[in-house]
Amino acid sequence: MKKEILINLKRFEVHRDKGGVCDVANPGEWIIQTVAGILAKGFGQSDDYNLTIFVPDVLLPFALEKAWAVPAKSKPYFAIGSQSCHYADVAKGRNFGAFTSHNIASTQAAIGAKASIIGHCEDRNGLRFAMEQFAGEKGMKDAGFDARANETVSAIIGKKMVCARAAGMCAVLCIGETAVQQGEGPLEAQKPRIEAVLRTQLQKGLSEVAGTLDPESVIIAYEPVWAIGPGKTPPDEAYVAYVSAFIKEATKEILGFPAKVVYGGGLKSDNAAMLAGINTLDGGLIALTNFTPPIGFDVDELERILKLYTA
After folding, report:
1. pLDDT confidence of 139, banded at 50, 70, 90?
2. How far is Cα 275 from Cα 5, in angstroms, rounded to an integer?
């Protein structure tokens, strides 16, 4: 089975001088150069993997325009995707699309997006923010709040999955546990808590859309949220193997087939060989390629990561 390589480009729509990580004054020019560089390397026609780049909506037209300029025969396994979508959409005869400030799946698909990455930890945090504020004001943040919030947020993520699939896009569902949800103790003690969180995210995220899915239209990206960020220790091989195997089993129960699972905690040169050896993983997600200042994304370093992963 071909691997799935997902590239999630964040903060590249803002120049470094303003807090982003883009080195070009016009971020649109940067994404055009980056897509051109990726396709020039032949990454869109590898027999080893499919490659999808996810970009902010503001950069979608630039990325798609460059991709369209390259002959289809040079990029049969390449796609551009969006970074999530709204949980509702236009529908003929039902509404007129009053979605100011929201990016709807049908618009993304109409301009050429082939996939959407949904439920990323930042996506979930945005949905959870209002719940946190309300619960704090009303004194409702009791011991059961986290589980209720996880369930509610995951249900909204499920609505986004429905919209992405209705628009014809491949739906990438991100799931993962926080440090609080993981809890303390050795892995064996943590497993019931981890599985409860992930099962809720999978059931709520997939159940409503299950009938529209097949092995090629859905990918699960596992994010160890507790390990993301500077100075954090990433999960070891045993941890990733355990979680990815659990996701395979859980999705088979929900969907009738084991979904593709990619490591969403960052595929990089340091862990590429290790992740490649886990047979319950079907690929990885790359956000940055350079982790020492100035952090960023470099096509030559991407090539190095891909070679290490597919060796």
Report:
1. confident
2. 12
pLDDT digits 0-9 by tens, 36-66: 999 999 999 999 999 999 999 999 999 999 9
Cite the active site residues. 120, 223
Q: Token pair for residue 197?
A: 């969180």
Is the model's pLDDT at 128 over the cut of 90? yes
pLDDT of residue 138: 86
Q: CA dist 266 to 56, 68, 157, Å? A: 18, 28, 22
Confidence tier at 92 by pLDDT (50, 70, 90): confident
Q: Which domains does the chain have, with CATH numbers?
A: 3-120+150-310 (3.20.20.70)
What is the pTM assigned to this prediction?
A: 0.97
